[in-house]
Amino acid sequence: MTTRRSALAAALAGVLAVTTLAACGGSGSAAAGDQVKELRYQGNVGAVTLAELAADLGYLSDVKLKWIGNTISGPQDIQAATTGDTDFGGAFNGAIVKLASSGAPITAVVGYYGVDDVNFNGFYVLDDSPIKSARDLIGKKIGVNTLGAHSEAITKTYLAKEGLTDEEIKQVELIVVPPVNTEQSLRAKQIDVAALGGTLRDKALERGGIHPLYTDYDLLGKFTAGSYIFRDDFIRKNPDTVKTFVAGVGKAIEWSRATPREEVIAKLQEIIKKRGREEDDSQTKFWKSYGVAGKGGVIEEREFRTWIEWLDRAGELKKDIKATDIYSNDYNSFATGGAA
Description:
Layout: E1 3-4, H1 8-12, H2 15-23, E2 38-43, H3 50-56, E3 64-71, H4 74-83, E4 88-92, H5 93-101, E5 106-115, E6 121-126, E7 141-144, H6 150-161, H7 166-170, E8 173-176, H8 179-187, E9 193-197, H9 198-207, E10 210-215, H10 216-220, E11 223-231, H11 232-237, H12 239-258, H13 261-275, H14 302-313
Parallel strand pairs: 1-3, 2-3, 7-8, 7-9
Antiparallel strand pairs: 4-11, 5-11, 6-9, 6-10
Helix pairs in contact: 3-12, 5-14
């Protein structure tokens, strides 16, 4: 159960070559009339994903999850789904856009993480840091969990809004650091800025001595930032399974909103304990929200259009693509006012 890390560039390498493989369905394909009922996926150390929460709550009905390892990289996770190593994956919507524009046959079906006033990603400096503004970041190092994903997009958006030129932005160095080590790297001054989110951010703030230079919530407000994707061929062969999965994730989102925070935390800790992977569950006590904006994970067009426009301006899209080419709410009954 190794933890995998890769930049988006690595995730995209050879994607056109694997498109044919994905079209064959990989090990996730089923015989005619027989839909897959076990979904292979990657998890996160010391955390509970919405898919895992849905499964534990019994919201996935006859669909089961099979954990094959952990990842800290959204781009790697969706690449694994594209090649058939897993059946679904989740990533920042901008990373999904970039992979789809390279020809990967994937569709986003439900939001699974987002940004709100209690669940956001901040970019933190030490209290005694000389960095006070975007311009001070030129020549400095920012620790992020992976390249080509959420933290990179937010950082470049911030730098551009603050007036830095493209050449100046290139001089701000993004360094891949495992999330569990990011705070330590900042305090040891191995990096100048640390991207911290969720429970890891709150644990760091509890220890004190740091403050945010910028946050994604300050920049963009509330929005769903990442989605779960399936390969298009998998969806065609297993539409009922996909519907069950999306419905379960949607119900888990709404359960987390309606349930007292203490009960949600207790459930997360229970899940981590039951799976027996010798993980530290201390970060779960800081859980506040999954941050998903849409009811039941319903995706809004702007949540992809924003990043299409941004990537297009940056010249990073392989071909023209529309938001509606990338996502679908057809499998989410919350989209039509239902409750799954």
